[in-house]
Design brief:
10 strands, six-stranded parallel β-sheet, alpha/beta
């Protein structure tokens, strides 16, 4: 059996990625999946629940996943990916062989019935968690120019657009300046709920185009819900990962640096083409 006994302390995007890791590796091992309760059980259909087992349990961490053939793991034990396994977006491209939409389907009561006669463009702004004490000195801030340039690109490619702005920080400058720009240009837009991330996620998941931040929240919305989204990412953000600009808060040991690079490499792999299940349409 493959297990999550305790969900990551990360927020909703990281938890979705942890669950994706559970299901992808369980499929590779052709074994049953067991998952502790989390808010995803309220939002998605038919998630795996926690199951009892008398087997010994062995932690499978990110390094083992990236550096070994997980299909050859010894049998007879239950493997689990609780923190500090950190099997999140850093392992996404190696393990994701099955479309996550097959096991991460939003419940009907949360699905958004976006009109079919408009091109729906979701815009995500990452605010509070990159501006506070754990914000890595603002390394992940996406400035107004990125959002405005992305909107101009969308307008050059599509007609009858409708923008959906989603953030947990409605005082974030990039968010406010984007609203001013959309208002000035007379483009149709709606604002999400800063207090209900289920609503925002469900909206982003059904958009035709995503103007993304660095957040795993919007990354997950990219590979859940509507297929074949056109996703825009910031080239400035990619560049910071290409040079492995330091961001981890741990003591700067070779092991800590190696773990950081594993997460940076998600963005580098994306820049190099990603996969059919998650790729970028344009970098701005």
């Amino acid at each position: 059996m493959f297990r999550i006994n305790k969900m990551t302390r990360g927020r909703f995007g990281n938890r979705i990625l942890q669950y994706n890791s559970l299901m992808q590796i369980a499929n590779t091992l052709n074994t049953e999946a067991s998952c502790a309760s989390w808010e995803g059980h309220n939002f998605f259909k038919n998630l795996n629940t926690e199951k009892e087992s008398d087997n010994n349990q062995v932690l499978l961490n990110w390094q083992s996943v990236l550096e070994s053939d997980i299909g050859l793991l010894p049998t007879g034990a239950d493997y689990y990916i609780d923190d500090p396994a950190y099997c999140l977006h850093n392992v996404f491209y190696k393990i994701t062989k099955t479309d996550p939409r097959n096991f991460l389907e939003i419940k009907d009561e949360y699905k958004k019935g976006l009109s079919s006669d408009e091109v729906h463009v979701g815009i995500h702004f990452r605010g509070t968690d990159i501006l506070g004490g754990d914000g890595n000195e603002g390394r992940e801030i996406h400035y107004p120019k990125y959002y405005i340039d992305s909107i101009n690109l969308v307008e050059s490619e599509f007609e009858n657009t409708h923008y959906h702005l989603c953030t947990d920080d409605p005082s974030f400058d990039s968010y406010l300046q984007t609203i001013r720009f959309l208002t000035y240009k007379g483009f149709k837009f709606s604002v999400g709920s800063s207090s209900d991330y289920f609503e925002d996620f469900a909206t982003l998941a059904e958009c035709d185009v995503l103007i993304a931040s660095s957040s795993t929240f919007v990354v997950c919305a990219g590979f859940i819900g509507k297929e074949d989204k056109k996703i825009i990412h910031s080239k400035d953000w990619i560049d910071k990962n290409l040079i492995h600009q330091i961001w981890h808060k741990k003591k700067d040991t070779p092991e800590a640096r190696k773990m950081q690079i594993s997460f940076d490499n998600f963005w580098i792999e994306l820049y190099n083409g990603g996969s059919t299940l998650y790729q970028t349409w344009r970098f701005i």
